[in-house]
Amino acid sequence: MSSGPGPFERVYDAHVVPIYRFIYARVGNHPDAEDLTAQVFVRAVEQLDTSRDPGQIAAWLYRVAQNATADYWRAFYRLPLVGVDHVAPGWEPADESGPVVEPDERASVRVQALLRRLPDHYRRVLELRFLERLSVAETASAMGITSGNARVLQYRALRRAALIGDPTDG
Amino acid sequence: MADDERRDGDAAERFDGYLDALLGDGRPSPEAVGDRDEAEMARMAAELAASARTGAAPDPAFLEQMRLRMRAADSGIDAVRVPPPVREAEAVPADATRRWRLSRRQVLQAGLGAAAGMAAGVIGVSLTGGSRRPSTLGDDAPLVAGEGFWTEVARLDEVPPGSALRFSTAAFDGFVVNDEGTVRALSSVCTHMGCTLHFRPDWNDLRCPCHGASFDLAGRLANGRTKWRRDGAYPGDAQAYPLELPDLVRPEVKVESGAIWVWTAQA
User: Fold this and answer.
1) Backbone φ/ψ region at B129: left (φ over 0), alpha (ψ -120 to 50), beta
2) Contacts B25 to A, Cβ<8 Å
3) Which residue in B2, B117, B137, B153 is deepest, having the highest Cβ count within 10 Å?
4) Whole domain around residue B39: which residue ranges?
5) pLDDT digits over B216-243, tens only?
6) Is A28 within 8 Å of B33 when comparing Cβ atoms?
7) Complex ipTM, two decimals?
8) Which residues in B lie closer than 8 A to residue A133 (C-beta atoms)?
9) Touching check for B50 and chain A: CB below 8 Å?
């Protein structure tokens, strides 16, 4: 019918993968990352002016993605949802036209720094569970402890990690 | 100290439910998270899980389905954002000549179904021999507008109250439903990611097999957060669907001489 993709498809093609990664880095699982990414682009169709310049479009998409993930976590905190329309408090792009920081790199560096600050057995249990993706039973066996102890250990390690570093930069 | 051990043991066991879902790449539920501190831990866990898979790629099927939705939006009238007003069955003289039917067993390949449902009613392309239908809805412009035709999709007696029947035309893949005497046509394409919906007679809804969205027989999301919270637990579902979704595409229908006709634009 027409030649080449339309404006929404172009915006989508340019941004969907980095937006997806941005969200995935914050929710840690694909089903939720897909839902939230879909939410961002549905919102784009409703509200985004595709004639804005590319930097503004990127900043707008990241802002909506940030709000969508903030709302996602609000459910875990039992907080009322604000909806992706609203700007999350404390989060504004420093410069709407500026380049967006690559989120993957930053998150990974932060996680490494955080793990280094944990006591050895805490770091070990998190590495086995999250980086090696071992089950609780496998983790327990690798550390020579019971599964019950491994569960408690990962629980305490996460509690300590959460105290050291706020996981989101919001 | 022993009390601490026991308390942590119980909490750790429950919280492991969150971690199991997260690390199994399922959808973690807030239910496993007890308090604010554990919510902080859940966020930390999510970031740890994500960091181990830096650059994790989205599912190509997901990307393609979303692209179809963007393309539909680019096409002008738009299945993503403008649900049409609900149109009830009305008696209008028949002027169509075609009849396609999908047998109850026949199943369209999901991707094709998504594309067909998206195109139907979204794009009004001139069809040689297609009939021109005047728009009657003013500002509430119907999704199905422009050029198309009436297609007979079922006999009325095949769709008793509380039932639904799959049909397919060249341009559209959907259900005719009988919602306590009101006949409607609804797209069979979920407005989330384009999966093909299934009718569940027990719950009187159209259910998405992909992520569990349920649509009522008026085409509205039945188990969304708002509705689920306001009306108590949606009977067909244990928990709220996490997103609000647009209504299903609803082409116009008419009942005439014991037959159900659906208006579809030509793709």
Assistant:
1) left
2) 29-31
3) B117
4) 2-51
5) 999 998 887 666 555 555 566 666 677 7
6) no
7) 0.80
8) 23, 52
9) yes
